[in-house]
UniProtKB/TrEMBL annotation:
This is Lipoprotein. InterPro entries: Lipoprotein_mollicutes-type_CS. NCBIfam families: LP_plasma, XXplasma_LP. It comes from Williamsoniiplasma luminosum. PROSITE patterns: PROKAR_LIPOPROTEIN.
Length: 94
């Protein structure tokens, strides 16, 4: 009986652990970059006449083109994402 309980407990533990790992989705770098683009687009839409918005539009357009080419490295995606975050913060702070 003790062996059966150990086996059943082990199977249950493995099942719960597997479900937890599958349930924890970490966004990819491309997904995070797309999230930054959507934030930038909202900012552009909400503040069309604010200083720096035209430049942000250009960065967003270029970033979308680069994503479509699917030839960016992880490092490039990180740098572009950081640039978008900084631009968004600067425009929101004005």
């Amino acid at each position: 009986m003790k062996k059966w309980l150990t086996i059943i407990g082990s199977i249950g533990l493995v099942g719960v652990t597997g479900a937890t790992v599958v349930g924890c989705h970490q966004p990819t770098k491309v997904e995070r970059l797309k999230n930054e683009i959507s934030k930038a687009k909202r900012l552009i839409y909400d503040n069309p006449n604010k200083q720096g918005v035209d430049e942000l539009k250009q960065v967003v357009n270029m970033t979308e083109i680069l994503i479509q080419t699917d030839e960016m490295t992880d490092d490039q995606m990180d740098k572009i994402g950081l640039s978008l975050k900084l631009a968004i913060d600067l425009i929101e702070g004005m």
